[in-house]
Specification:
Elements: H1 6-25, H2 34-45, H3 51-58, H4 62-74, E1 78-82, E2 90-94, H5 96-117, H6 122-145
Helix pairs in contact: 2-4, 3-4
Length: about 150
């Protein structure tokens, strides 16, 4: 039964939230597609990443991430600096413009979450995040066992 299928429900909820978030993206200072936004968000969580770290974090191949980094660099949202310890690696960092965009995204995302969860109890929200974290950890373990 579809109602009881966890993966379908999670997938559908994410799709619905992304569709609801799309109109909010129009107000951002820079137009960035969701895929590139994922790269920026990853870097904002752990600054000074290398391309391979970003690809692993986002579970994408390195060439896809490289194309996205190229586009984001052209838009002035991030920079690449050659690593002192290994000249074959580039350290990827957000620029001031990139940090501003991330603040805008986080503000809109928080507003949207508040709207979506305003009629829920704090304990329900806490339980949701606890279950979500558990599912992510278990899924990661399953991937590593394959």
């Amino acid at each position: 039964m579809i109602k009881e299928n966890l993966l379908f429900n999670i997938s559908f909820a994410v799709k619905e939230m992304n569709l609801a978030f799309n109109p909010l993206r129009k107000g951002f200072s820079v137009k960035v597609p969701p895929e590139e936004l994922g790269v920026l968000l990853a870097i904002s969580l752990q600054n000074n990443m290398i391309q391979q770290d970003i690809a692993e974090f986002l579970k994408k191949n390195k060439s896809t991430v490289l194309r996205q980094i190229d586009k984001l660099e052209q838009k002035g949202l991030l920079t690449r600096t050659v690593a002192e310890s290994d000249h074959r690696r580039n350290i990827i960092q957000l620029t001031e413009k990139g940090e501003t965009l991330i603040k805008e995204v986080n503000e809109k995302s928080n507003e949207m979450f508040h709207t979506l969860s305003s009629d829920l109890k704090k304990s329900d929200i806490d339980a949701f995040f606890k279950v979500l974290t558990h599912l992510r950890k278990k899924s990661n373990l399953m991937q590593n066992q394959l």
